[in-house]
Amino acid sequence: MKTLKLLRHAKSDWHTPYDDDKLRGLNSRGHRDIARIAPLLSSYLISSQSILVSAAHRAQLTIQGIADMPSPENEAPLNWTVDESLYTFSMTHLLSLLGNISNDFTDICFVGHNPAFIELINYLVMPPLDNFPTCGFIEMKLQIHSWQDIKEGCGKVSFYLTPKQIKKGSV
Fold first, then answer.
1. Could you report the per-residue pLDDT of 25-49, keeping only the tens digit for each?
2. Looking at the whole model, is its pTM more than 0.85?
3. Which domains does the chain have, with CATH numbers?
């Protein structure tokens, strides 16, 4: 069995003009959502053998914001690697990346973007999600022995969390 975790970047800043989409930062709601969700995600992220983060500034700010939040689980530093190839909006590109992961890894996390993430989630698990919001997190248990065996419907959601769930107190 393999575990795949996806963390969508927090709400980005669309009011500031950027020459390059990768440079876009976070807006105030994005920062609030990180503060809201971080304490509940620390144990899930610490258990990941590898955290790969999109080269987009907003994705890096999201993981850094979570790492900076005090939590009993994050006494050890949270480590991640920026991966240029995760700056993608294509599910097929994500499937290709997953197929190239070493089978020494059983638990990985990607920090990145929709629509690639929602399409990948809906490819892997049933029933499909209607939405994967900004700063949303999902953990999926994949019924595979090798990352190269990934296929449609091979996963089950084991944990799903959004900032709105926390705000409403349904966590």
1. 999 999 999 999 999 998 899 899 9
2. yes
3. 2-168 (3.40.50.1240)
